[in-house]
Amino acid sequence: MQDTELRSARDHWTDIAKGIGILLVVYGHVARGVFNADLGMDAGWFRLIDDLIYDFHMPLFFWLSGLYLLSSLQKYGAGGLIRSKLDTLLYPYLVWSLLQGSVEVFLSRYTTSQTSMAEVLRLFWQPRAQFWFLYVLFIVFVVAVLLLQRHPARLKAGLLLALAAWWAQNQWQLLFPVDFVASFMLFFLAGTLFQQYRSTFRQHALSVLLISGFSFSTLAWFYHSQLGLHHDSNHWLKLPLSLSGILLVISASMLLERRQASQPGQAGLRTHLTQALLLCGSYSMPIYLMHILSGSGIRIVLKKVFHLQSAPLHLLLGCLFAVLLPLLFYRLRERQGFQWIGLLFTAPR
After folding, report:
1. 3-state per-residue secondary structure call for 286-322
2. Which of 53, 56, 146, 174 could connect to 179 by a Cys-Cys bridge, CB 3.0–4.6 Å?
3. Any idea which GO molecular function terms this record carries (predicted)?
4. Residue 346 in 3-state DSSP?
5. pTM for this one?
């Protein structure tokens, strides 16, 4: 969800991929809320879709976050890059952990979980809800910067170390945040390496799509159906499963970008889909920060005020509001008198 400033005009596929990723994040959290609220969701389908999403969607964001590491290092230097991440990662982490946590405490009697203020204030060593991503991503950034700041050639050696750390995390339960860093550093550095070969992948996007699509569906069937494992199980097959899901999203995004570029100005379902994904990707950070509050809020209104118990309706409206409300709220900062909204997302200069 970071580093848009260094993206070239030909790299719109990264926003498309982020759009796909953030929609999966939103659906996953809304669906879990609906299921836990006992609104009649089919348990089998819920767990299957939940597993398929969580197989790869957070590794995807770490991969995308690592794409521009080397170019950012070259432009800003190690100190400048870390300072920028203090502004764009740690600052919104603190603001929104306190804001969402306070709202959750107030609304505990209406939601599917109980939250105390003491739990919220543990944010410095125990991130809550979706905000663990920002906490861990900042640590991953710092470790990667320290590793590569003067020796970019260490990237491949770093990948081997990250692979060893990933394997260790699957063998033993490490302490937080070492466990999360070990689980996701590999994908971050893989994204950094991938950026060096993106042109080749773009040229062969269709082949990558077919291969990764077949790999992901086959591995997911074997992993979940035959082995009976879930997304949080510790098994070495989880790595190729995650990688194939990531490459599936990236190749599909590259193909959508290519079609958009080859047919400018043409309207159609695929064009509208691409534009919607681009929009969601461009606003992935505010959507990520606000979607829990928005999705939970509409579920409370539908259930407690209108007494609606339809799971499909809750899913549809929950996802819609979880995307649109953050987007509209974030855009308000551009209006006269609402500039203060920007302070909720980025530290003041």
Report:
1. HHHHHHHHHHHHHHHHHHHHCCCCCHHHHHHHHHHHH
2. 174
3. acyltransferase activity
4. coil
5. 0.92
**CB pairs under 8 A, 24+ apart, for 253-256?**
253/13, 253/14, 253/16, 253/17, 253/20, 253/277, 254/13, 254/201, 254/202, 254/205, 255/205, 255/206, 255/209, 256/13, 256/16
Greatest distance between any 2 Cα atoms in the chain: 60
Q: How far is CA 116 from CA 30, 101, 293, in A?
A: 22, 8, 16
Cα–Cα distances (Å) from 340 to 40, 175, 235, 325, 344, in that order, read 41, 38, 47, 17, 8
pLDDT tens, the chain, 349 aa long: 654 444 444 579 999 999 999 999 999 999 999 999 888 899 999 999 999 999 999 999 999 999 999 999 999 999 999 999 999 999 999 999 999 988 888 877 665 567 788 888 889 899 988 999 999 999 999 999 999 988 888 999 999 999 999 999 999 989 999 999 999 999 999 999 999 999 999 999 999 999 999 999 999 999 999 999 999 999 999 999 999 999 999 999 999 998 877 666 566 666 788 999 999 999 999 999 999 999 989 998 998 899 899 999 999 999 999 999 999 999 999 998 899 999 999 888 7
Give the torsion through C-alpha atoms of 132, 133, 134, 136, to 10 deg: 80
Angstrom distance (rounded) from CA 299 to CA 269: 29
Domain extents in the chain: 4-344
CA distance 309 to 34: 10
Distance between CA atoms of residues 24 and 106, nearest Å: 28
- The whole-angstrom separation of Cα 113 and Cα 292 is 13
Instruction: Please answer whether residues 57 and 242 qualify as being in contact, where contact means their C-beta atoms are separated by less than 8 angstroms.
Output: no
Q: Which residues contact 79 (CB under 8 A, 6 or more apart)?
A: none
- Please state whether the peptide bond connecting residue 177 to the residue before it is cis, i.e. omega within 30 degrees of 0: yes
Pick from 183, 206, 208: which is nearest to 194 by CA? 208
